[in-house]
Design brief:
Elements (H helix, E strand, L loop, with lengths): L1 E2 L2 H12 L4 E9 L8 H11 L10 E4 L9 E4 L8 E5 L6 H13 L9 E7 L6 E8 L5 H9 L38 H32 L9 E2 L11 E9 H11 L3 H19 L9 E7 L15 E7 L7 H22 L1 H20 L7 E2 L3 E7 L6 E2 L2 E9 L8 E8 L2 E9 L9 H15 L6
Parallel strand pairs: 5-6, 10-13, 13-16
Antiparallel strand pairs: 1-4, 2-7, 2-15, 3-4, 6-7, 8-12, 9-17, 10-11, 14-15, 16-17
């Protein structure tokens, strides 16, 4: 057995108290021109009979008990791929809306802790011979960046390759497999003491980082770049979360986003965040629910060093910062400029003080948001943050899996009480895809978010004098 690190243990404990905490990806492929009628079935069979070593992160299950002194641990186990990879087929004649309904149902299901915490579904029956691949992995195993690296390791820029490994096989970014340890009934009783000693040694430096981050947070609040704790307005997706999920996604040309980036002299992430901000502003305004104060985004900022092989051993490597979404600003140019200033401040915060310090400041506020959402009484006027927003970057070239072209990849994250809407963006090749997941009780109809995204993107193009794509 191996002790979980603090982040992994926190994610496992949080899931025990609230809702499923897994992240996922939905990939849609077009088969190669020479594909026969059994192409998807062949891919499924190849995935089941592959003899490649399984990624070590996907070959362990969680365990906690008396034998572990009440500590969360990982237990290495044999993986039966048949339990983890399933074959589904949509009914004839259905459209992509049926696929999203299926994904919504699958995403709501909790992963079984009796085996490694991942599940995959190969789904056929889409129009034009297309097929989908939906993968979900517990957040304790990987963060968004590591999860996308795992998927990218199973893809290729060569459309003629037919020997690619399944995504669950150990790849370039897999952590090195440690030497087999001697059998043990659990962690050594002194492990906690040794861990405490290490924590004490580093506590002074960590405390200094937190104090510095607190100081900069106050400065940022005075400058209007960041909100103070519990300063976000309470909106419908900050309430109690039920068991059902609603998932939807959309894909746009990345060149449109890059053109706005150049015209506004900001980053691609700033433009994508501005699109999300505009969508939320319009969606709430159309329902008479737009608050006077700006919504506040909770933005994971990766601290992973992509070129460092040792970073692969870290399941999660990120900090958390807040970002004003400027939903109280009507002008799209001014809104984008304000978001740029807020995001620039957030990145500098994490770079200066580290991911751990940012988490130390943000997590208690997230916990307060969760508690507020769960309370059955009292006015709901303020919350910590309104929604998480993440942006992930993939390969710059078109990607293929054994000849099938990757048309779209939609990242699908997690939601929980108090933060019942999550929007994640992934760019690869010449495309950028938005993946939205929400509690169905809060947003029973998420489909209107998609045409709103196109409208907001077109508004930004018009504001900067750019021709719409």
């Amino acid at each position: 057995m191996q002790l979980m690190d603090p982040m992994e243990a926190a994610l496992m404990s949080a899931e025990t108290l609230v809702n499923p905490i897994h992240i996922a990806a939905l990939m849609i492929f077009s088969p190669p021109d020479d594909a026969g009628p059994g192409f998807v079935d062949d891919l499924y069979t190849q995935g089941l009979i592959a003899t490649d070593a399984v990624d070590p992160r996907l070959a362990r299950r969680p365990h906690i008990g008396v034998d572990t002194l009440g500590l969360w641990t990982w237990e290495e186990v044999e993986v039966d791929v048949v339990d983890h990879v399933r074959r589904l087929h949509l009914p004839p004649g259905v459209d992509d809306a049926e696929l999203w309904r299926l994904i919504s149902d699958l995403h709501a299901q909790r992963l079984s802790r009796s085996r490694p915490l991942w599940q995959a579904y190969l789904i056929g029956g889409l129009s034009g011979g297309r097929f989908a691949f939906y993968i979900k992995i517990h957040h304790a195993l990987v963060d968004g960046v590591a999860g996308m690296q795992m998927i990218a390791d199973s893809l290729s820029g060569d459309p003629d390759r037919r020997d690619l490994k399944p995504f669950y096989a150990a790849g370039v970014h897999s952590p090195r497999v440690a030497s087999p340890a001697k059998p043990s009934s659990g962690p050594h009783p002194l492990t906690a003491v040794w861990s405490a000693a290490g924590l004490a040694k580093s506590s002074l430096g960590f405390a200094r980082s937190v104090v510095g981050a607190q100081r900069d947070l106050l400065v940022g609040a005075l400058q209007g770049r960041v909100g103070l704790p519990l300063s976000a307005p309470f909106v419908r997706f900050n309430g109690r979360l039920g068991p059902d999920r609603a998932v939807v996604g959309a894909t746009f040309e990345l060149s449109r986003v890059r053109a706005i980036r150049v015209a506004a002299d900001v980053t691609v992430n700033d433009v994508l965040t501005a699109v999300i901000s505009g969508v939320l502003r319009d969606w709430l305004a159309e329902r008479g629910e737009l608050p006077r104060r700006s919504l506040v985004g909770l933005c994971p900022i990766s601290v992973r060093v992509l070129d460092d092989p040792g970073q692969a051993a870290r399941s999660n490597a990120f900090g958390l910062e807040t970002c004003s979404l400027a939903t109280d600003v009507d002008d799209p140019v001014e809104r984008l400029a304000k978001i740029h200033r807020a995001m620039d401040f957030a990145k500098k915060q994490v770079a200066a003080h580290g991911g751990a310090a940012s988490l130390a400041l943000v997590v208690p506020n997230v916990a307060q948001s969760v508690v507020t959402a769960l309370l059955p009484f009292g006015p709901k006027r303020r919350t910590g943050y309104n929604l998480p927003i993440s942006t992930l970057r993939g390969p710059a070239e078109e990607m293929y899996y054994n000849g099938a072209r990757l048309d779209s990849l939609f990242p699908i994250s997690t939601v929980f009480a108090g933060l019942g809407l999550n929007i994640t963006v992934y760019s690869h090749g010449d495309k950028v895809s938005f993946g939205c997941v929400a509690g169905r009780e809060m947003l029973p109809q998420v489909e209107p978010l998609i045409p709103l995204a196109e409208r907001v993107l077109a508004e930004l193009e018009a504001a900067y004098g750019l021709a719409s794509g």
